[in-house]
Amino acid sequence: MPGFNINQAVADGVRAPSATVESVRLSRWSLQFDGIPSLGDVVLYAQSCQRPSFEIDTIVLHNKQNQIRMPGKYRWAPINVKFYEILDLNGNTTPSILFNYWSSGGNKSVADFKINGLNKDFRTTVEIYLEDGSGKTVHTYQLWNAWPFKIEPTELNFTTSDIGTTVVSLNYDSAQEKLTDMTQRLSEAARSFGANKVKVPE
After folding, report:
1. Residue 12 to residues 9, 15, 16, 27: CA-CA distances in angstroms?
2. CATH number for region 29-188
3. What is the residue extent of each domain of the chain?
4. Is the pLDDT of residue 48 over 50?
5. pLDDT tens sequence across 59-106
6. From the CB of residue 51, how many other CB atoms can be counted at a distance below 10 Å?
7. What pairs with residue 117 in β-bridges?
8. pTM of the model
9. Position 22 pLDDT exceeds 90
10. Are 151 and 99 in contact (CB under 8 A)?
11. Using CA atoms, how far apart are residues 162 and 68, in angstroms rounded to an integer?
């Protein structure tokens, strides 16, 4: 199992898992909407988030009795982000803050119901960060030109005491993955270890 220092020695030509490899923990992540300060506190209450994925269409070419399959257009699948519903001291709730982002008519909102149209700069970049055990980013997903096309609070129900959530569905044009330079991170960790190393008196 990666991440555990067992069977690390190489015997009889069999290569064992390295102790420097760690499994990704699905609970180590954070989220950011670039350029939208009103969502800064809301992202702290994110519960779950899908990662971007895409699918490539298949084009079938016919050559006599043969079929040749070639890649066509690719499509990025929308993602869902689920937030806990919270109520702050100012009376703001998660659904109200997200709905204002969606339709308040501000610079970064999608729709302006007063003019019955779309705002000019409603799209933004959404970044999803995967983190290690110390909270440092090791992997970043950037979703370009993202905007919410659906905001869905949970149904109210007198027969349950479950915590309320709100699901935001995001469309985007494309996405990019960025990996942190592990060589640089290991070098920084080594320097930090050397600086914090306790000297034993002789």
Report:
1. 10, 9, 11, 38
2. 2.40.30
3. 29-188
4. yes
5. 999 998 999 999 999 899 999 999 998 887 777 778 778 877 776 655
6. 14
7. 112
8. 0.75
9. no
10. yes
11. 52
